[in-house]
Structures are given as C-alpha cells and as structure tokens.
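tokens incoming
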C-alpha cells in the first residue's frame, strides 16, 4: 500500500512492541530482581519492585489488535456493518485479535512493511516503556538503572538510527537530574538523535529547573530532539487527583474515574510546555527543540494564551533563575515546540495557529487507535497547500533528524 503524494513519508509516531526481556536482557542481578514476570490467572504481568504494571493490559502483546482497529470500526459503522451478526467488532472495540506480526519486533521486516506503505523513515516509540516510569518514583536510582538496561536492549533490537530509516528514541526517565543527564550523555554518544521523555513534573521540579541544565546542555550541543510522548500507567496526576477528589467511599466511582481522565488528560503536556517557556529553557539553550507526540492539539490554544498572560496583569514580565524571557512567550513556543495532532482533530487549524513548519504527522502505527495505514493521515490536511502538506508529512521531521 504505497502513497501517491510524489514523495515518501516520514512518520513521527510509529511504535514497536517490546520483547519480553527488554528490561532484563542487559540488566544486572538487581534489575532482574526489580523487573520480573508473574502469572496472574491466565495472564502474565510485569512487576516493578512491588508494583504490578497494569498498562498495557497484555504486556506479552500476543495476540494483538490490528493497526487502526478503532478507525476501522468507525468506518464499518458508517457503512452499516455494525448490524451484521458476524461483524468482527461485535464483541470488542478492538475487533479480531491476531498473532503478533514479525514486523512489530523485527527491524528488517519492519522496513519491508514501510517500503510497502511509502514510508521512508519513522520515529519508533515504546509501547510498554512509556507506561512504567510512574511505578519507579519511589526508587529513582533503580528506575534509571532499569531504563539504562532498556536502552541497551533498544540498541540491540532496533538501533537508534538503523539504516538511517528507523529512529528509535532512547527513553530517559527524569526521576533524578544527574542520572538523567548521565543517560542523555550516554545515548547521544551512541548516536541517538531523539530521546523520549515523560511530560509533567521532573523529580518534583519544573523541567526548566537549573538542576536539569546539564541534561538540556547536552541536548543543546548535540541538537537532540526531545520528544514528550503520550504515556500510561501510574502518574503523579492520578495521585494528586485522589488527594483532591478521592474521599472514600465514592458515591459514584464511574463519575470520578471519568472526571480524573478529563482533568488529567492533557495536564502533563500543558505543565511541561509552560514550564519550559516560562523557565527560559530556550533562552539558555537556543538549539533545543521539543515535541508533543500523540497528545493531540486541543491544549495548544490554551497554552499560547496562558503564556502571553503570565508575569503579572500589567507588567507581563517573565524571569526565571536570573534570566529574563525577552520575546513574546507564544512566539518562543512557536519557534521551539512541535506538535503531532490526532488526524481527527483540526490539523489545518493547528497549522494556522503555530505554522505548518511546527506540525508533525504521526500515524501511531501499528496501535489500534492509530491510522490503518500511515498515508491515511493525509486525508485530514487536504485543504492545505501542497507545500504545507509536504512540510507536515515529511520535511519537518526530516529537518529535526538532520539539523
């Protein structure tokens, strides 16, 4: 399934499914005691320390939902297939599961699939790795040690820039400023051009805090793209919600669960982007570029408004750690921050808000909530000029890789 755009795509949001020994293959004995598999009924689950990981639900990934299953379900409903008794989504929104395809764990087979899709290069993010940092907050040293082993596994199975086509970001937890900088230094020296970081507070601080200056200095010097990707599992925001709204017994547990997801859904990326701009990270480290991946775009207009109204109702003066934010904060955001919106959102509107030069195409392939095929994403931006479509579908990501 190629594309007819006249150029190959660069997808800023693809995923792999981790091997079962992703954390333990290169871990020492302490890591192997910390990260272990258990049997719980018919399911196998991962334990980190004394905490069982519940996200994703099946960390073996076999069987697995088909790429774009949710989009396929909606297409079927539009055409009336939902009334058929043998409809594959009749029992589950995930549809008919399939045996884990080799392309989800084998980089050479993955490249063959990309050739069929018309995708030249992609950014390959974790599936499990994005969901477990929150389980490590009570033991930062072990968390960093476990993720160092994970990054060594990532080098083995995918590489940080395999054949200049598969760009797999090393995952760096921000549980400890110095350990985060150590890992950043290591992966950059190994050739990583992108790193994946969880949005939100960093070790109980703003990510702009000078405690993280060494981390940002390495990114600045190496021109490393710092990608904040959507995440799952335990978070500081869920714990905060329980403090504010968690009086038990719940009168309606379903309501409070819905409210928690509504309040916390975009909280991490909002806090992060406002912290970085108002903390003058980009003034201190002008080569730094960051991105929001798989977290939508609905938060962007709010952040732009709040940034330009920070610093007092009359003065609008923003300073941090002895430095002054000289430019309009929203302009700083537009110069340094990239956003990969969902295809069902107003991507055209986002390109008008921050400029098409800062919008990244991300298909989320092969996750069930992503596109059925990466090229399907272009359907949501057909109203843009061809040159702007090419920026979003290829050139912006290419610039981040090559700068």
């Amino acid at each position: 399934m190629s594309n007819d755009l006249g150029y190959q795509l660069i997808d800023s949001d693809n995923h792999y499914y981790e091997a079962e020994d992703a954390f333990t293959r290169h871990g020492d004995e302490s890591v192997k005691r910390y990260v272990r598999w258990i049997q719980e009924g018919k399911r196998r689950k991962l334990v980190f320390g004394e905490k069982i990981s519940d996200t994703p639900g099946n960390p073996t990934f076999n069987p697995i939902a088909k790429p774009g299953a949710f989009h396929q379900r909606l297409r079927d409903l539009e055409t009336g297939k939902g009334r058929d008794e043998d409809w594959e989504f009749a029992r589950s929104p995930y549809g008919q599961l399939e045996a884990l395809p080799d392309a989800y764990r084998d980089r050479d087979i993955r490249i063959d699939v990309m050739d069929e899709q018309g995708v030249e290069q992609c950014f390959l993010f974790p599936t499990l790795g994005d969901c477990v940092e929150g389980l490590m907050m009570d033991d930062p040293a072990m968390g960093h040690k476990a993720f160092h082993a994970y990054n060594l596994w990532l080098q083995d199975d995918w590489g940080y820039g395999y054949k200049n086509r598969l760009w797999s970001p090393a995952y760096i937890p921000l549980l400890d400023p110095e350990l985060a900088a150590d890992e950043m230094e290591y992966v950059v020296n190994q050739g990583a051009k992108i790193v994946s970081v969880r949005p939100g507070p960093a070790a109980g601080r703003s990510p702009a805090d000078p405690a993280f200056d060494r981390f940002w200095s390495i990114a600045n010097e190496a021109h490393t793209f710092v990608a904040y990707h959507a995440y799952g599992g335990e978070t500081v925001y869920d714990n905060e919600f329980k403090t504010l709204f968690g009086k038990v017994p719940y009168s309606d547990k379903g309501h409070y669960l819905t409210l928690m997801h509504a309040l916390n859904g975009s909280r991490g990326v909002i806090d992060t982007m406002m912290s970085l701009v108002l903390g003058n990270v980009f003034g201190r480290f002008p080569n730094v570029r960051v991105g929001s991946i798989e977290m939508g775009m609905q938060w962007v207009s709010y952040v732009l408004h709040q940034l330009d109204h920070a610093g007092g109702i009359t003065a609008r003066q923003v300073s941090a750690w002895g430095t002054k934010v000289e430019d309009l904060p929203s302009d700083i955001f537009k110069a340094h921050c990239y956003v990969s919106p969902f295809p069902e959102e107003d991507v055209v509107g986002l390109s008008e808000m921050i400029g098409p030069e800062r919008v990244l195409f991300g298909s989320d392939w092969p996750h069930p909530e992503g596109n059925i095929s990466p090229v399907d994403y272009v359907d949501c931006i057909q109203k843009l000029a061809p040159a702007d479509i090419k920026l979003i579908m290829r050139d912006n990501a290419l610039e981040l890789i090559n700068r």
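note: The CA atoms of residues 239 and 246 lie 9 Å apart.
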